[in-house]
């Protein structure tokens, strides 16, 4: 997990606008700013795979009696260049500044907040925002809360599975933020990309589906392991026969040794270990210590292979 690297690609999905639907305000969209910086259109950004990675680097929030203003800062990577792009400061000029600095590889998993229900005058604004972020390289969740006052209408935003929030849009007046929304971005981790490539090889005409891919990989592993188990069991049978022949009158002790070894694999208590030592001592008059150890090691190996095969078979059901 420590080596996990994510890249985030815009997928064209926008969250709902959250806040007081009766409050006015003009529409604001940071993707317009990013498109202008990249000398393209917002439509092209969403549809033409121009952005290879997009993430929030920093958020500034100004607040006093409500959230006066907000500004997002982005790191955007295209095919040939990485840009640091400052979104516009949206809202008013009042309030005290609070800064949220993101670590490298930190992403917005969810947002919650509160707003005033009154749409008249200087009311009906966003009054509280809470960002829930995740750092995959550390498997760590962080919380950031900015609150002007405690209102009684709350909202929660969370993107679809496999996505994070990447870019801000919303509504604002000349003195406040009234509504908030976010563009979603799909997680493209190295592991995800490898799974997708493998899925394309196995199912070239079907979209990526992890459960189907997992089932197919399990089936292929079972088909690969089953003949190996049969082959190893045949070899072990031949080895056991040779050891019994060499043991002469003590051939039944070989069976006792192997039966006790099976018990030891499942329940390694002192009594069973004592029996193993006794049987090996008897057989050492006919077999070398290396021969005995090789016989027991092969049995342990086959037992593990059989368990692996049984687990694969269960997962195929």
Written overview of the protein:
- This protein has helices at residues 30-37, 42-47, 190-202, 210-247, 251-266, 270-283, 289-316, and strands spanning 8-14, 18-19, 26-29, 53-63, 67-77, 82-86, 90-91, 96-101, 107-115, 126-135, 140-147, 153-157, 163-172, 177-187.
- It contains seven helices and 14 strands.
- It starts with 7 loop residues before the first strand and ends with a helix.
- Helix 4 (210-247) packs antiparallel against helix 5 (251-266) and helix 5 packs across helix 7 (289-316).
- A hairpin with a 4-residue loop joins strand 13 and strand 14 (177-187).
- The chain folds into two domains: 7-188, Jacalin-like lectin domain (Vitelline Membrane Outer Layer Protein I, subunit A); 210-315, no CATH class.
- Strands 1, 2, 3, 13 and 14 form a five-stranded antiparallel beta sheet that branches.
- The chain is an alpha+beta fold.
- The chain is elongated and about 100 Å long.
